[in-house]
Write a structure and sequence with these properties.
Quinone Oxidoreductase, Chain A, domain 1; single chain; six-stranded parallel β-sheet; 26% helix; EC 1.3.1.74; globular; 2 domains; 2-alkenal reductase [NAD(P)H] activity; alpha/beta; seven-stranded mixed β-sheet; Rossmann fold; binds the ligand CCCCC/C=C\CC(=O)/C=C/C=C/C=C/[C@@H](O)CCCC(=O)O; binds NADPH dihydro-nicotinamide-adenine-dinucleotide phosphate; lipid metabolism; MDR_fam
């Protein structure tokens, strides 16, 4: 008999999540039936979407939603071998039983030397968000100027590096000087700390006096209001996330975007990465190749211990992560 530890949403978040909103529970798992397998989580992901998702789609007492890299420890399913690592969407749990239908194997050519946690980051959902968001939503072209915020995070750091690979000038903003130094190290042309600049408007203008063709927006709110005025005519804005609004108890009000959108003939499109589920393999293979070739660098903020998942989640929302925030069980 295996006992799984799980993190439950004890109380719906009000404003910023608190440790007391979570409960750690123990669940005894039953013996496997034919066709089932037992998995243990090795790495788990904390992602910004968990905050708005919990509000809309979860009840108090539900296990937190989330993705993990897990190892098969027992199998009564001939399609799955013990010892194999997969990506699962089983929430914040140390162990779980699956019928195998929702599991995704890591790419078969995954090198031994490469941390499997990257399947939750650059070679996983966040990396593909950058890949498809830039290619299919921003439709950026070589020679254009791309702006990305939350640039030192899981998605933003990949956006900047892909835009460089595809021949663009890249401007990134992040919330600490260490993050800004990291952006320069990984090839951003311009980077600044949005928390310490005297004027965001001036900092954006200084970084690209001619304006921006593409804006990959991870932040929303006031940042978007300022940045939209610096788009070039026919510019494209990919609305990827709005993390500056996820913890608001009272929704923010305008200013509104219509006037700059009309005058500059802009396109603004929201997207969810799962739109490209049918191209997941293409995206993963491309990211894996570029990581192995050293063209895309990865940084992870690894928190040790399943017990520390709420702290890692809260820390990520506060900006304590450089690169992808993951938990090592
Ligand atoms: N549309 C889609 O399919 C997807 C969307 N997303 C979205 O992309 C964005 C980035 O996600 P991800 O890369 O995983 O997370 P990150 O790794 O970037 O971590 C979140 C970062 O957001 C920044 N942040 C937090 N609060 C604020 C704020 N008030 N203003 C500005 N920045 C803030 C912090 O960085 P800093 O120190 O710079 O402030 C923090 O490190 C999120 O909005 C997320 O919801 C992610 C995946 C898929
Ligand atoms: C799915 C929740 C949507 C909430 C929207 C809020 C903010 C935008 C955002 O952050 C969206 C994230 C979407 C993530 C989707 C993930 C799934 O497709 C699971 C991927 C599993 C995997 O890693 O393979």
């Amino acid at each position: 008999m295996v006992t799984a530890k799980v993190w439950v949403l004890k109380k719906h978040f009000e404003g910023f999540p608190k440790s007391s909103d979570f409960d750690l529970k123990h669940i005894e798992l039953p013996n496997l039936k034919d066709g089932e397998l037992l998995l243990e989580s090795v790495f788990l992901s904390v992602d910004p979407y968990m905050r708005p998702y919990s509000q809309r789609n979860m009840k108090e007492g539900d296990i937190m939603i989330g993705t993990q890299v897990a190892r098969i420890v027992e199998s009564k399913n001939p399609d799955f071998t013990v010892g194999v690592f997969v990506v699962a969407r089983s929430g914040w749990r140390t162990h779980f039983i699956s019928d195998g239908k929702d599991l995704r194997a890591l790419p078969p050519n995954w090198p031994e030397s490469l941390p499997r946690s990257l399947a939750l980051g650059t070679i996983g959902m966040p990396g593909l968000t950058a890949y498809f968001g830039l290619l299919e939503v921003c439709k950026m072209k070589s020679g254009e100027t791309v702006l990305v915020n939350a640039a030192a995070g899981a998605v933003g750091s990949v956006v900047g590096q892909l835009a460089k690979i595809w021949g663009c000038k890249v401007v990134g903003c992040a919330g600490s000087d260490d993050k800004v130094a990291y952006l320069k190290k990984i090839g951003f042309d311009e980077a600044f700390n949005y928390k310490t600049v005297a004027s965001l408007d001036e900092a954006l203008r200084k970084a690209s006096p001619d304006g921006y063709d593409c804006f990959f927006d991870n932040v929303g709110g006031e940042f978007t209001t300022v940045a939209i005025n610096q788009m070039k005519t026919y510019g494209r804005i990919a609305l990827c996330g709005a993390i500056s609004q996820y913890n608001d108890s009272v929704p923010q009000k305008g200013p509104y975007v219509q006037m700059p959108m009309i005058f500059k003939e802009l396109q603004m499109e929201g997207f969810i990465v799962s739109r490209w589920n049918n191209r997941w393999e293409e995206g993963l293979n491309t990211m894996l190749k570029w990581v192995m070739e050293g063209k895309v660098k990865c940084h992870e903020q690894v928190t040790e211990g399943f017990e520390n998942m709420p702290a890692a989640f809260i820390g990520m929302l506060k900006g304590e992560n450089l690169g992808k925030a993951v938990i090592k069980v």
